Amino acid sequence: MTKAERREQQERQRAAKAEKAAQNSGKNPPKSANKPSQSSGAGAPALTRRGSRAADFPPKGAQGQSKDAKAGADDKGAHTRGLRIFSHFGLPKPTSHKGEIHPAIVRLGLQFSEFKITGANARCIATLTAFKTVIQDYVTPPNNTLSRHLMTYLSPQISYLVAARPMSVTMGNAIRQLKLDISGTDIDLPEQDAKDALCEKIDTYIRDRIIAADQVIEETAGNKIKDGDAILTYARSSVVEKVLLAAHADGRQFTVTVVDSRPMLEGKKLLQVLSSAGIQCTYLLLPAVGSVITETSMVLVGAHSLHSNGAVFSRAGTALVAMMAKQHSVPVVVCCETYKFSETVQLDSFTRNELAPVELFKSFPQNRPQDLSSLNDQPNLQILNPLYDLTPPSSITAVVTEVGVIPPSSISSIPLALGRTML
Amino acid sequence: MPVAHSPIQALKSSSAVPTTILEDPSGSLSQQGFDVYASYQRILENEEIATPLAAILALTELIEHSKAGTMFELVKELHEAAEILKKRTTNPISLNAGTELFIAFVTLFPHESDNFADLKTKLVKQGQDYAAEALTFRGKISELALDFIKDDSILTHSYSRVVMQTLLRAHKQKRISVYVTEARPRGLGVKTYEALTAAGIPCTMVLDSAVAYVMDMVDFILVGSEAVVESGGLINAVGSNQIAIIAKAAKKPFYALAESYKFHRLFPLSQYDLPTHNDDILSFPRHAQRLSPVLTARPSVAPSPLAMTPEQILRNPRVDYTMPDLISLVFSDVGILTPEGVSQYLVGMFAG
């Protein structure tokens, strides 16, 4: 960074702080860092996203906008100190109460933000189940119809969940389907019947798209496991766990290497389940993966979401394992239900990601808490724990879905073939 | 590798052990005395008909003879027949492609007829029409491939009807010369060599082990296929994979020709994930066998003991799997596809 650039940035930071002080802080939730600012939109002529952001600053800020706009935009909030370009990953936000929030949602929000419920499938099922309670407790106000009003009632509940932890792609897909079902509800249907019908639709969604899909994947992926295979998996995926358990119950002889990584160390749980089921397991941390990859016959991982270009968004570290496997011609098989498909294209894990809260996942050994506190206070130290990373399609051999085993390049032809109604 | 009706093959299938062992299940399962395998074998005698088509026609005949009264029963019978065919052939990959295609077609066929007998005749007619149409596929493919052939030297592997037709078609307009591999152990390259030489195309036999030597002299590689799988990869006579790897290293295009009925919903992760793979393939002989006279006899007698024994050959694979990233293009009657295009086509066809 040159001197001029540094000065420019400092000025912009000052400007941002001044702007923040001027505005009512409650009005401007942290998320707006990613959105065009509403206040500037009116006056500025035909602005791009970056442009509109820059327009908030004194004229000088506009000069270096293309390079530093992002950094400048993200400097608000003292607690994000040091995270700069990573703050758009979505740090836990102070939960704002807009409208009334259903107790089931409050509880779920807490479970999400404290990482008591993690994993794309578990979060989706928990959300849908909570919504069932919400829908049952909902009463349509007079002079309103359920199909029109219920969604306005659900919206703040959804925002509450999103504030607790950024929404997963699976939740997004399920909620989109739910919205479609709600708007399609017959106006003439008695209220209780309509609510029951919606709950039934939610149940069907969970059963068809998640539970049944998992069973099919279990069988298909299980068939790829041969006697004497050494399977390597990373972190913990509920589907992979089911596949391995089913293959073991089927009488196949294989060993599993669980590769794990800080800060979440989810693999420990998988290790516990697998070894208590009687599967031969090895446990190691990510840096050691190079030493065992040559002994591996297949890498089996789960996914958070799957994108149109065939890229897999999964727990941070998966990309590393997949690339390592690719390098050694070990097949990389991703287990993923079709409801995890996202229409978007993602090219890197920087544009969209999530940060693990530092308080929950300590970056340093927990038996030395004094280190953590002292490190936290270091002015020039930032602790950064992205939760996900993106595995490029080139390092994936196959994706096992409930419609069959497909190469990542053909992902985009599936939703169409499924006759998906949502877009 | 299009199934070969060479004497070797005929010999093998007639003496194949499974035929006798599996006599019983086929006898009890076959539909009202209709022997689907016999029908399949009879159809295969026609030199022009490939395995998947023969399977489709055999299943069509089964529908003709079937007494099934409902769709469910019929589909069940078809599945059983497909299972019988699969068990009785040594290499069921391309056969499966045919039976799968036909059963998918039958299940998706609109049930508009008033009575079931009508529907059955319709299905039979559709099956026969398809088979008749399918015979024109090779012509289509050879026309498509023509644009990619200049006055070139071409390397081909083993014997393939669609490659033969393409080469003969190209010979009419262009000056091509062909290198053909011997394709051990079945030696089908000899058949290609004889046919091409008879047609006046300059042709040379290449040892399977000399492929790397010849690679710099050829402009591209043209192979047929047993099946094209969902990954976009290729299952073909053993040796295709190494040719593809060498072609990739020498940066020569590797073209595969495949009729669309050879597209198969299968996703092998490796050579050992193929349905044809079993534990016997390339297994190490037992200790006792190693002491057998082969070793001692070697130095004493003439050159013949230096050849592999029939048992050793039997322990070798007959087909191998070529990864999609080694294949430049797949020519089929539905168009010229990249390997990704093949998998998209397959996913679109079956995943719906």
Descriptive notes:
The complex is a heterodimer of chains A (423) and B (352). With 423 residues, chain A is of the alpha/beta class. Chain A folds into 3 domains: 3-76, no CATH class; 103-213, Four Helix Bundle (Hemerythrin (Met), subunit A); 225-417, Translation initiation factor eif-2b, domain 2 (Rossmann fold). Chain A has helices at 3-22, 38-41, 49-54, 65-73, 103-113, 120-137, 146-164, 169-183, 191-223, 238-249, 267-276, 289-292, 318-327, 369-376, 413-417, and strands at 229-234, 254-260, 280-285, 298-301, 305-307, 312-315, 332-335, 341-342, 388-391, 398-401, 404-406. In chain A, strand 2, helix 11 (267-276) and strand 3 form a beta-alpha-beta unit. Chain A is globular. Mean pLDDT of chain A is 80; it is low at 24-80. Chain B has 352 residues and is of the alpha/beta class. Chain B has 2 domains: 7-134, Up-down Bundle (Four Helix Bundle (Hemerythrin (Met), subunit A)), CATH 1.20.120; 137-273 and 317-350, Translation initiation factor eif-2b, domain 2 (Rossmann fold), CATH 3.40.50. Helix content of chain B is 50%, strand content 12%. Chain B has 17 helices and 11 strands. Chain B has helices at 7-15, 17-21, 23-29, 36-44, 51-65, 71-88, 93-108, 116-134, 137-146, 161-173, 188-198, 211-214, 240-249, 287-290, 293-300, 310-314, 339-350; strands at 153-156, 177-181, 203-206, 220-223, 227-229, 234-237, 254-257, 263-264, 319-322, 329-332, 335-337. Chains A and B meet through strand 11 and helix 15 of A and helix 17 of B.
List the helices and strands and how they pair.
The complex is a heterodimer of chains A (423) and B (352).
Chain A (H helix, E strand, L loop, with lengths): L2 H20 L15 H4 L7 H6 L10 H9 L29 H11 L6 H18 L8 H19 L4 H15 L7 H33 L5 E6 L3 H12 L4 E7 L6 H10 L3 E6 L3 H4 L5 E4 L3 E3 L4 E4 L2 H10 L4 E4 L5 E2 L26 H8 L11 E4 L6 E4 L2 E3 L6 H5 L6
Parallel strand pairs in A: 1-2, 1-4, 2-3, 4-7, 5-8, 7-10
Antiparallel strand pairs in A: 5-6, 6-9, 10-11
Helix pairs in contact in A: 1-4, 5-6, 5-7, 6-8, 6-9, 8-9, 9-10
Chain B lengths: L6 H9 L1 H5 L1 H7 L6 H9 L6 H15 L5 H18 L4 H16 L7 H19 L2 H10 L6 E4 L4 H13 L3 E5 L6 H11 L4 E4 L4 H4 L5 E4 L3 E3 L4 E4 L2 H10 L4 E4 L5 E2 L22 H4 L2 H8 L9 H5 L4 E4 L6 E4 L2 E3 L1 H12 L2
Parallel strand pairs in B: 1-2, 1-4, 2-3, 4-7, 5-8, 7-10
Antiparallel strand pairs in B: 5-6, 6-9, 10-11
Subcellular location (chain A): Cytoplasm, Cytosol
InterPro entries (chain A): IF-2B-related, IF_2B-like_C, NagB/RpiA_transferase-like
GO molecular function, one term (chain A): translation initiation factor activity
